[in-house]
Amino acid sequence: MTNLFDTTLPGRRHSPLARCASAGALFLLAGIAAPASHAQEVEAYALDPDFPQAGSFDFQNVSWTTLSPDGERLFMVQRGNPAVSVWSLDGALLSTWSTSDLGEPHSLTFQSADGTHYAWITDMAPPVTASESYGHCLKKFSLDGAYLGSIGTCGETSQGTGLDPVQFDKVTDIAFDSSGLMWVTDGDLDGLNNRVLSIDPATATVLSHWSAPDNQPGSGEREFNLPHAIAVDACDRVYVADALNHRVQIIRTDGTFLQELACFGDLGVYGLSLARAPGSSRLQMFVTASTTTFTGKGIASVFDVDPLCTAALPVPSGCDAAASWEISLPQGSSGEALHAAEATADGAALFISPLGGDLLPQKWTRSAAGGK
Q1: What sign has the CA pseudo-torsion 260, 184, 196, 79?
Q2: pTM across the whole model
Q3: Which H or E element spans position 306?
Q4: How far is it, in rounded angstroms, from Cα 197 to Cα 209?
Q5: How far apart are CA 128 and CA 93, in angstroms?
Q6: Residue 55 exposed, middle or buried by CB count within 10 Å (0-12, 13-18, 19+)
Q7: What does each of the 372 residues of the chain score in pLDDT, given as a tens digit?
Q8: Which of 165, 290, 186 lies closest to 229 in space, CA to CA?
Q9: Are 77 and 104 in contact, with CB atoms under 8 Å apart?
Q10: Pick from 295, 358, 300: nearest CA to 325
Q11: For residue 136, which of 66, 187, 64, 85 has the smallest C-alpha distance?
């Protein structure tokens, strides 16, 4: 298999650069087939070595990176102080939040309601020294960091499985559908739940939920084993990164199962983002998958999505990706994984949050190697 990239990856804040492992070796490690060669000739992504312009900023386990509602800024969530920082797309630090209202934040998602934008953060689980206000809940903030309230009871011992009222355990991510309803993945490693819930954010009422019996890990349709990231497209198709089932499930909001993409061998599927292809009306799905032992090795893949809402298969080419490349993170102070993915609205750049080891977040930019 031809290596798409011959580039170096940024290490910790001042550590030496580490070179990517060969693509063939990584796919052999992952136990998956290499993407079709014609896809490699169409699209390629290269690491931006100047992102971010870190300066003296202290990166501490960046968990998530999310585009602002206007698409012109990046909001980064980390498990350190400051918990939230705001950056330009080129990687310049713009501002930070000063908040004591987050314990172990996992993801950040924006909601637009009545002409106002809000940030929802999953406060997944409390750290060892947590106060009673941390963990197991969804927290709502203004865009300048003012805490506005929560769904689910927050606190060190508040974890649960209840639906009325709803209670979360290791809640991981949030997305919103065309009706403004909230879709939540609830279930990280060794958690009580492995489920996806639809919630009315105005009333915190659970409208529907998908899981195996008793929220146990399951591998069937609408069943999950560590549902880690979620996205909803304009057709109200729900995309779930089903991490330890090594797949992406695509399901309509009414519960109709559409497709499974089991393209990632033994890698855990952790990151997922939807965006338009550059200069095209095509929709694309960006996925990051990583070794579940947090060795820092994984792949990023891009799949073409059919924008036609009535399409029988949202991803008509299946596992034949438009682009796929290996990433080998440098070794930090602890285990690392390609934790979250966020593509710009035009799909021209992909931002990856490498949780573990206090590593720098990454920006990969697209360069066309041929038309499509």
Answers
A1: positive
A2: 0.88
A3: none
A4: 4
A5: 30
A6: exposed
A7: 323 333 333 333 332 222 223 333 333 333 333 443 333 345 799 999 999 998 899 999 999 999 999 999 999 999 989 999 999 999 999 999 988 899 899 999 999 998 999 999 999 987 765 566 889 999 999 999 999 999 999 988 899 999 999 999 999 999 999 999 999 999 999 999 999 999 999 999 999 999 999 999 999 999 999 999 999 999 999 999 999 999 999 999 999 999 999 999 999 999 999 999 877 878 999 999 999 999 999 999 999 999 999 999 999 999 999 999 999 998 766 789 999 999 999 999 999 999 988 999 999 999 865 434
A8: 186
A9: no
A10: 300
A11: 187
Q: Contact 265/306 with Cβ under 8 angstroms?
A: no
Query: Which H or E run contains 166?
Result: none
Beta-carbon contacts of residue 195 (< 8 Å; ≥ 6 apart): 185, 186, 187, 209, 210, 211, 215, 224, 227
Q: Which residues contact 196 (CB under 8 A, 6 or more apart)?
A: 183, 184, 185, 186, 209, 210, 211, 222, 224, 227, 230, 238, 240
- Render 80-102 in DSSP notation, one character per residue: SSSSEEEEETTS-EEEE---SS-
CA pair distance 45, 43, nearest whole angstrom: 7
Q: Pick from 273, 195, 197, 256: which is nearest to 227 by CA?
A: 195
Separation of alpha carbons 272 and 71, rounded Å: 17
Residue written as tokens 């804040």? 13
- Which candidate, 35, 37, 67, 71, places its Cα nearest to that of 302? 35
Size of the chain, expressed as the number of residues it contains? 372
The DSSP 8-state label assigned to residue 341 in this structure reads E
Residue whose entry in the numeric block shows the structure tokens 């950040």: 108
Listed by start position, the domains of the chain span 20-49+263-372
Tell me which amino acid residue 163 is: L
Beta bridge partners of 66: 75
Collapsing DSSP to helix, strand or coil, 130 comes out as coil
